[in-house]
Structures are given as structure tokens and as C-alpha cells.
Design goal:
By secondary structure, the protein is mostly helical. The protein folds into two domains: 73 residues, no CATH class; 187 residues, Orthogonal Bundle (MetI-like fold). Helix 5 packs across helix 11. It is found in: Cell inner membrane; Cell membrane.
Length: 317
Amino acid sequence: MLRYFTGRLISLILTTLAASVIVFLLMQVLPGDPAAIMLGINAQPDTLAALQKQLGLDAPLIVRYFNWITGFPVGDFGTSYTYSVPISELIGPRLQVTLPLAVLAMILSVVIAIPLGVIVASKRGSATDVVGMGVAQIGVAIPNFWLGLLLILFFALTLGWFPASGFAGWENGLWAGTRSLFLPAVALALPLAAILARVTRSAVLETLSEDFVRTARAKGLSRNAALWKHATPNALIPVVTILGLQFSFLLAGTIIIENVFNLPGLGRLIFQSIAQRDLVTVQSLVTLLAASVIAVNFLVDMAYGFLDPRLSTGVRA
């Protein structure tokens, strides 16, 4: 298990470094000079040169990358061109919105998808199966931003159960903050739940045909007990795989959803930084999100080791 963990950890570090290099280089090849944009078209050459030096834009590319990436382990992501404050100060308050939003959406998707997938798999070919998979197909096809607008129209404007936009803040209580994030989380969770439900159904159907399930049934175990105690746990590996892969789409979806619901999260900060050409903020935030996705996939790999010990010990069936 230690060897398995070490190998995945080294892979995590190398992948994160590779992602940071790609993001940094992409930011450098974009047209336009941040200093020129900050000063305007009428800036004097000496003033422009002074600001470029102040921002560190006159340094060689490798030096700029090294100065930027070495600050990441200690939480120093540089200074925002637009706000003139450390980027870490911008990230902190917004992370209190984006992280709970992503976690809530992930929990909702799992709570909806796994029971739905298992139930329709146990009733293969029935009306329940057809309706459940039909609803899942619709969920895959609906864009989350459009779903968000429908949720605002019905639950916020028509029924008045939830706020249409904005974030109440955790200082006003757990319920106030969760209530502000519930509709955005549902908009993010339902498309993901639709995908997970389809994967769960396929995995459970495959597991139900295995010999150990038939043996459990032959020993007198009820159909539901065999389904939930034997088939479902052994069908979780592909579900966990999709869950880890979809986390990146979940984070990308927050950029759109946070703008739809006017939430002050990391996604909205990225959108604003792109509009203001605050490249150092954009590259730091994108790298941070990429590192989060890589870390989640690392946790998924660790989960494999517990779900199927053969993977961590090198034993194959």
C-alpha cells in the first residue's frame, strides 16, 4: 500500500508542475501587455517601463515562472494587477463560497444518482427503468446554466423559497449560507447525477451477473440484500472513477453558475480577472483549480486501493 501511495503522490506532484507550466505559458502568449492596459493608450514609454519593472514583467520568462511557482507551497500566489493586493487575500473569502458549493453539489449528485442507478438496475426492462433512464438522459442534455435560470424562475421568483442571486454570508448562520447555495448546487448536481446514475446502472447490472451474487442468492440471501450488500459495493469503482473525472467539469461549471446566481466565488473572480486582463490572477486561479482536480483524482486513486485491495498490492484477478 505504501508503494502504491508513493507512486500516486509522485504522479500528483509532477502532473501539477506540468499543469502550472502549461497555464503559465498560455498566459504569456496571449496578446496585449497588462501594464499597457492598466495605464491606458496614452501612457508614456518611461511610465510604462517603470510599471513593467514594478510588476516584474521585464524579467526573463524562466525567472518569472520560478518566482511565481515557488510561492505556491506557502500560499503566495503573487499580487493582483487590478486590485493591488496579494491574490491569496482575494482567494480566501471566495473559497468560502466555491468550496461549499462544489461539496454540496457533489453530495447532492451522489445522493440522487447511486440510489436511482441501483433501483433502475434492479428493475431492468420495467417502466421504472425506462422512465429513470429517460430522466437521466434529459439531465445529461440540459446545460447547467439553463437549468439554473429555470430554478431561479420557479423556486425563487414564483415560489419565493430561495434567493434568486447573491450570497447571504456564513456570518448570518449556516442555514442562510446553505439556502443561498442550494439552487446553484442543484443546477450543478443534476447533470452530474444523470451521468452517475447511468454509470451506476451499468456497473450494478454487470455485477449482478457475477458468480458471487448468484452464490449469495443460492445461500438464501434475499434479492434486496444481495443487491445492496454485495452487488452495489462491488460496483462502486467505475462510479468513483466517473465522480473523480466529473469534478473538473463541476469546477468549470462554477464559473458559469456563479455568474448566473451572482455568487462571489472563485469562478466569478476568474471571469472578472479575464475581463480586466489580470493575467497573474487568472493563471494562479486556473493552476489552483487544476491542482484541486489533480488532488481529487489522487484521492480517487487512494479510494481504489480500499475498494479493491488488488490494485494497491499489485495482485490481479
